[in-house]
Write a structure and sequence with these properties.
- By secondary structure, this protein is α/β, with parallel strands linked by helices.
- The chain has a single domain, classed as TIM Barrel.
- The protein is 54% helix and 17% strand.
- An 8-stranded parallel barrel has the order 1-2-3-4-5-6-7-8, surrounded by 8 helices.
- Helix 5 links the parallel strand 4 and strand 5.
- It is globular and about 70 Å long.
C-alpha cells in the first residue's frame, strides 16, 4: 500500500520523502488556502518534492465546463499532477471527458459504493472514499473501503482505492487489510504509525545499560 500525505505543507512533504515513506500527495482547496502562498508556485514545488509520485490537485469549479477547463490547466502543472474532481453528476462527466483525453483523475468526496462504481466506469484513476467523515456521522467508514475493494476486484476495474479522511493508525491498518491501494493521511498520523511506547522503553533500557558498561563502539 502506498502512503500519501494529505497536506500542502512543503516542510512536511520534504521530511516524509526524506524518510523514504511518502509516495505521493493529496491536496484540496482548504489545505492550499492554509499555506497562504501563491497557488502555482506552491503546487509546482509540491510536485517537484514528491516526483515521480502523484500529486492530486483539486478543481474549484462545480460545473462540467469549468471542471474540464480547470482540469486541463492543472494537468499541465507537472507530469505527476492528477486532477481531483468531486463526485457529482458533473464531476462524473468531467472524469469521463478528462480521462478520455489521457488526463488522470482522482474522484474525491466518495461516500457510497454506488458512487465508487460509477466513478470506475467513468474512468477515474483514483477513487477517494472519506472514512473519518463517515465515522463522524456514526457510520463505519472502513466498511465502504471494503465494499469498494470487493466490487473493483470482482469486475476488474483498474481504478485505485485511495483511502482518505484518515484520522488514526487503526484506519491505516484496516485500509491495508481491506486492500486499499493508497492511504492518504496528515503528517501527524504518519508520525503516529512509527511510534510505540514499548519501543521507547526498550531503547531507553538498552542505552542505560550501555552507558553503565562504559564500553564504546
Amino acid at each position: 500500500m502506498k502512503i500519501f500525505l494529505d497536506t500542502a505543507n512543503v516542510t512536511e512533504l520534504r521530511e516524509g520523502v526524506a524518510m523514504g515513506l511518502v509516495d505521493g500527495c493529496t491536496t484540496n482547496p482548504s489545505l492550499i488556502a492554509k499555506e497562504k502562498r501563491p497557488f502555482r508556485p506552491l503546487v509546482e514545488e509540491i510536485c517537484s518534492i514528491v516526483a515521480p509520485g502523484d500529486v492530486s490537485l483539486e478543481v474549484v469549479a462545480t460545473d462540467f465546463d469549468g471542471m474540464v477547463k480547470e482540469g486541463k490547466e492543472l494537468a499541465q502543472v507537472a507530469p505527476n499532477a492528477v486532477v481531483k474532481c468531486p463526485l457529482t453528476k458533473d464531476g462524473l462527466k468531467a472524469v469521463k471527458h478528462l480521462s478520455s483525453e489521457g488526463i488522470r483523475v482522482n474522484q474525491t468526496l466518495c461516500f457510497s459504493a454506488t458512487q465508487a462504481l460509477l466513478s470506475a466506469k467513468a474512468g477515474a484513476t483514483y477513487i477517494s472514499p472519506f472514512l473519518g467523515r463517515l465515522d463522524d456521522i456514526a457510520a463505519v467508514g472502513m466498511d465502504l473501503v471494503r465494499d469498494i475493494c470487493e466490487i473493483y476486484r470482482v469486475y476488474g476495474f483498474k481504478t485505485q482505492v485511495l483511502a482518505a479522511s484518515i484520522r488514526n493508525p487503526l484506519h491505516v491498518v484496516d485500509a491495508a487489510k481491506a486492500g486499499a491501494h493508497v492511504a492518504t493521511m496528515p503528517f501527524s498520523v504518519l508520525e503516529m504509525l512509527m511510534k510505540h511506547p514499548l519501543t521507547d522503553i526498550g531503547l531507553k533500557k538498552f542505552l542505560d545499560d550501555w552507558n553503565k558498561s562504559g564500553a564504546k563502539i
